[in-house]
Amino acid sequence: MSSATAFSAYSRGSWTPRASSGSGTAVLEQAASPSRRMTAAQRIVVQAPTRDWREVVETKLQDLIRLDVGWDGYRGQPVSFETANFAVRMLESILPSGAPAPQVIPGISGDVQIEWHTEAGDIELHVRRPNSVHAWRETDATGEDGEEVELTFDFRPIVSWIKQISEATADADAAAA
Fold it and tell me: In what order do the strands lie in the sheet with 43-47?
């Protein structure tokens, strides 16, 4: 699921993908006939935003979708491609560029757990399937029981949770320096 292969764009017969450089850039060319060469003005370059955490997360998810059935010694299923793809898209929408990479852990039902554990608090996102996420966090403000929410499409609560633990971690790092 590298940046170069994670997405494709086709408009029925008028745009064709060209090999990517592997840097997250895809080039689409409009071709009227197979023998016609494209000019630079006829090319569209689509580039994924750079995220510090992306390569680590995508590599881990690639490994998890390739797990054998029974990976846990019982009947554990590999993480489903749909769930892994949704998890990456969700993270792209909620994490700023410099956010720390989360830990990514497989569930036994093709689901995935995405976690951050810091001195400022813990956040766990259980991605059961696309648009079905159980979120939990624990901070000094929430107490030991933490706070839980069920999410489908609106992930704004998680954005603020991540911002809070990121800022607290950055403040602690600055104070230690």
Answer: 15-18, 25-30, 43-47
Structure tokens at 59: 């590599």
The residue count for the chain: 177
Indicate the SS3 state at residue 165. Answer: helix
pTM of the shown model: 0.70
Please calculate the CA angle 27-37-25 and round it to the nearest 5 degrees. 10
pLDDT tens readout for residues 60-70: 999 999 999 99
- The secondary structure element, H or E, covering residue 93 is helix 81-94
Residues near 92 by beta carbon (within 8 Å), at least 6 away in sequence? 49, 51, 54
Tokens read off for 138 = 């624990």
The answer to whether the beta carbons of residues 92 and 105 sit under 8 Å apart is no
pLDDT in tens, 75-95: 999 999 999 999 999 999 998
3-state SS string over 115-150?
EEEECCEEEEEEEEECCEEEEEEECCCCCCCCEEEE
Looking up tokens 């006829």, which residue turns up? 42
